[in-house]
Amino acid sequence: MQGICKRFGPTIALDQVSLNVNAGEVLALIGENGAGKSTLLKVLSGAHRADRGQISIGGKPYQPRGPLDARGAGVAMIYQELNLAPDLSVEDNILLGQAGTGKGLLFRKQQRQKIEEALEAVGLGSLSPTAIVGQQSIATQQLVEVARALISNAKIILFDEPTSSLPQKDVAQLFEIIDRLKKNNIGIVYISHFLEEVRTVADGYSVLRDGRSVGSGRMENVSDSEIISLMVGRDVSELYPNIPHDLGDVRLKIKSMRGQHSPHPIDLSIRAGEIFGIAGLVGSGRTELVRTLFGLDHLSGGQIELDGTRIKGSVKARMRAGLGMLSEDRKREGLAQELPIIENTTMGSLKRYLKFTLLDLDKRDNSAIELMKEVEVKAHSGYQNVAELSGGNQQKVAIARILHQNAKVLIMDEPTKGIDVGTKAEIYRMMGKLAAQGKTILFISSYLPELLSVCDRIGVMARGRLREIREAADWTEDSIMSVATSSDR
Q: Are 58 and 187 in contact (CB under 8 A)?
């Protein structure tokens, strides 16, 4: 790809971007949210058409008219949000858009053999082609997409954040498949925000910033700090900024709490100004714990106290008491995507802007804009729809919403999921500042380095139980995983 340009209205998404991928190579495409990575891959996969620039595959000019055209030329895209028909079988999903026919007939026998070969190639040899895709794990569904790419004789496979929803064991399986694809001379472009992951899987790298190519080379010849500097355009000396904060009295006390999806009693005390982390594998009960705490799941036993006062009842009542929650699913639960930033920030607490029965819109808008500045949301204006923002800026809007509610306890479930390194550093700094202001932060994360670096204490969950709590300095990644995978009941 040479000199690729793409504009959406007044926004320049790609400006003279170049990318070279060799057969049998994994190229990491790196950059902050909004840098242009996904747009570039959508141009390559035929979902967007470039305004200017040239693309060639195997030395031959390539100008796809759409995704099917790209598939025919050997380019397959595996999106972060999977493109599968969940109610159809594995076989039907693999054949969507590429079923071979003759006079209107499907040659099922020949197709079944190809499908079984493709499934075997991605480590799914034991999966029945007639199995319903929606009933399989996310990891299996992702590999079904890879099998679909193989059956179309893909020469280039594009992966956009493929591990964002995968547990560690499935990440390792995916890397094995990628290594197998490399050996079959397939070129791979791989987008990820995890630098340690990129180092494991990639041979080369290319960095985008603000829609421009700013650096490329071999992974072994570049340090993490150099990559981060290219991404953000400045030195990021501290990925995990150390913001001093003092711990106060116990603010949140949970006594024998049980919920409809978390039957085991939980006991926990967290202090004002404390960042308390919760680690655990997928399915360990972390999300169920915080949903019960916030009232999204029914409280079936025990009690919750905030500053010595028992709280119960609806989500609304808990918000009034001082609890605020940032959902791990910001698109479906955390934000109203088609509404402006101002409305997303303020909709949970509008009473303060009422004059009799009328809403003081100027006062509301000014308050929201001040919060946008405080959390450093990058947007054209407060009236821009949230859906138009990068993932990192969407997350900042979600945090601004909690701050607008004057929450004393901020429940943050996977707040850095799918966010670039530079924005992660900003969110860690924000968490430190909030703790210094006396806020209590309950921080759930699957990414152990950030828990170990940001938290004061960490509790590890397994099988729905809070197994062990220690000072963060007393944990290591290995010791956390040892407790998280313990079979003790």
A: no
Number of H helices, E strands in the chain: 16, 25
Task: For the chain, state the CA radius of gyration.
Answer: 24
pTM of this prediction?
Answer: 0.65
Residue pLDDT, tens place only, 252-297: 999 999 988 888 999 999 999 999 999 987 778 888 999 999 998 8
Domains located in the chain, CATH noted? 2-232 (3.40.50.300), 250-484 (3.40.50.300)
Question: Distance between CA 361 and CA 359 in Å, rounded?
Answer: 6
Q: Based on the number of CB atoms within 10 Å of its own CB, is 298 exposed (0-12), middle (13-18) or buried (19 or more)?
A: exposed
* Residue 91: how many other CB atoms lie within 10 Å: 20
**Ordered DSSP codes for 409-455:** EEEEESTTTT--HHHHHHHHHHHHHHHHTT-EEEEE-S-HHHHHHH-
Q: Specify the DSSP class assigned to residue 60.
A: E
User: Which residues does residue 354 pair with via DSSP β-bridges, in sequence order?
Assistant: 359
d(CA 36, CA 41): 9
Quick one: tokens of 145?
């997409």
Say how far apart CA 150 and CA 76 lie, in whole Å.
9
Q: Specify whether the CB–CB gap between 194 and 23 falls below 8 A.
A: no
> Could you tell me how many residues make up the chain?
489
By C-alpha distance, which of 372, 294, 297, 302 is closest to 340? 372
Closest CA to 466 of 273, 307, 256, 315: 256
Of 330, 26, 308, which is closest to residue 157 (Cα–Cα)?
A: 26
Burial of 208 (C-beta count, 10 Å sphere; 0-12/13-18/19+): buried
Running DSSP on this structure, what letter comes out for residue 352? G
Q: Are 276 and 459 contacting, i.e. CB atoms less than 8 angstroms apart?
A: yes
What are the residues facing 52 on neighbouring strands?
5
**Burial class of 306 by CB neighbour count within 10 A (0 to 12, 13 to 18, 19+):** middle
Element (H, E) at 41: helix 37-44
Low-confidence ranges of the chain (pLDDT < 70): 97-110, 164-165, 167-168, 234-238, 487-489
Give the Å distances, CA to CA, from 131 to 85, 87, 88, 147.
Answer: 12, 10, 8, 14
Asked whether the beta carbons of 136 and 93 are under 8 A apart, the reply is no
Task: Return d(Cα 229, Cα 237) in angstroms, integer.
Answer: 9
